Batch of 2 targets.
Target 1
Amino acid sequence: MDWRRIAHLDMDAFYASVELLRRPELRGRPVAIGGHGEPSRRGVVTTATYEARAFGIRSGMALRRAAELCPQCVFLPVDFDEYRRYSRMFKAAIAAVTDRIEDRGIDEVYLDLTAVPGIRIDRGAPVARDIQRRVLEATGLTCSVGLAPNKLLAKIASDLHKPAGLTIVDAEDIPALIWPLPVRRINGIGPKADLQLEELGLRTIGDLAAAPPSMLVARFGAHYGHWLHEAAHGRDGRPVVTASEPVSMSRETTFEHDLHLRRDWQALAACLAELCRDVAADLRRRGYAGRTIGVKARYDDFRIVTRDLTLPEATDDDAAIRRAAFECLDRVPAVRRLRLLGVRVGSLSRPGATAARTGSGRVGAASPGPRQGELPLSG
DNA sequence: TCTGGGGTCCTAGGACCC
DNA sequence: TCTGGGGTCCTAGGACCC
């Protein structure tokens, strides 16, 4: 399996594009999707149309801030059920071309097109265009595709000519197309690593590729340092993984107003009970039970604490999860007000299955991939 | 009254066992 | 009175992704 053709397919401004299908009158106007769709309430932008992005609106931005940047922007609440419906539709359209699909969330997938007939014609462009056409016909939505010898390059490529782009990156294109890009474009380099690389004077992927591996290893540790070097040279042996098992399921909520662990105990307890009920229902609906129950709290200063508890037996029962969750909440220090509370169930198994499957169904390590935890932290 | 919700993977220390 | 390892489980925290 020397030569590979890997595609990364990314739906364009997915949530916003789905909303525009049922509100065509908003086409051409700045639209942002997020929270309750009211900038006066807590929430962030999940997706903005390209017209809204022209005003500087970005995903992750507070709705209030977005409204300041663009007062005429239309705000809509998120409707995950609808996005999931379109997600199933575009993935089904792709499945007509290949079954080598790795799910990467609601709006993107990796595809291993190596064995698709005709994939060697024109570097794979005709096959990619056929997939884009099928997605458009099935959903009315456009997507961008990157074609490359591996997932790392395909992911970077799909982002280069959005929307409705098709970008091919082969090994010989790396110096011209990849090296000028900022290091942050590599999937696995986040804000913390970006900051540290900047301190080393490494801004572009080309800078990173030219850096002595010993310097990266000294700064980031053996594993992550080596991975950074490989990634900068566009090397990535990870396979497209078509099946996986969930590791955990969780529910969390951010309060409209911060709550005090003792003074607002009634409200917090009611909230925790509801989260437990919801996560238990999720477990049962998907046929899982879990042994490790945990709570997550975010203080008003954005610090996060977690407490968890492992039970002797896996459960999907409201009351059992609730008891464990309340034990955990009791151990959260009441030092500040909370803005978020969450419940997580991990160490999942399938009660019906014959062999207890606790881990993920992932294939063994072909190549390292990032080990974020090895980053020297809080630098 | 900036900063959502649902995930994965990783590290590290202590307990406990052989 | 001082001397070991390795392995696994549990818990807490953090980086990163969509």
Target 2
Amino acid sequence: MKELKLNVKCFNLKYTLECGQCFRWKEVEPNTYIGVIKDRVLKVKQDGNTLYIISNKEENLEEVATKYLGLDKDYETLEKRIVLADDKVKEAVSHTSGLRHLSQDFFETLISYIISANNNIPRISKSVNEISKRYGTKVEFNGQDYYLFPTAKQLKDVTIAEYRDCGVGFRDKYIYDTVKRINEGNINLEELKKLDTPKLKKELLGIMGVGPKVADCIMLFSCGRQEIFPIDVWVERIMKRLYFNNDEKTTKKQIAEYADKHFGCDGGIIQQHLFYNVREGTI
DNA sequence: TGCCAGGCCTTCC
DNA sequence: GGAAGGCATGGC
């Protein structure tokens, strides 16, 4: 098995994989993670400015890993720019420098974030893994079995009750309906991805179980819309504390407007730093 | 035990 | 258009 070695700058594997944007990575040794992405298993280790990557599938590995991990983007310039936003952002970024957005699969992200509604990260992770194990393609890596996230086609005959058995709770019917519509051609993800952001959001909001926050996460994490600033309970809390004098009456709309005005096209990554830090208790 | 989690849907004004 | 209530389930 050939090992890919990549030189990186302004990249932190731990922050990138543990910031809550993805659900299928597991730390197996210090600074070493195994995860399943669209079509393969990756084992990634970071040692300083070097990433060591092996996979069950070596075809296009460098290209796939580079794109997935966001290594084709200039985060040095980005971070230098976002810390100028204000001292609160600067403080947050000082704890989590090197955190990047991944470029994740659209369908997997859609289903995962439908599951995320009023849920917690460990349980989301558990459900996504269970769906993969039951319905996804099995692949072998280092003598162990892993499962790709299933395609819509592979989920064609799955019933609402079977989703429920995967631990998704009341979101079972939303997943069922979404998969059904995709398989009927009623929703075409490839076409959606080409839409401009307002149109894309409108289409996503037409999917059962997808509201404003879930739509935002999908657009940010799998459609490359970097300016999107998702507001969940954690971000709402920290934004109120940092920018609205802890005023309980502050609305999500006010927070969204503030983020748009002050963070602009960098809203997405700033949100991610705030989210990670507030959960860790570092801001 | 009761509250909370990367909220959304339905119902009712 | 906005407010209130319900919702599965595991962790604390």
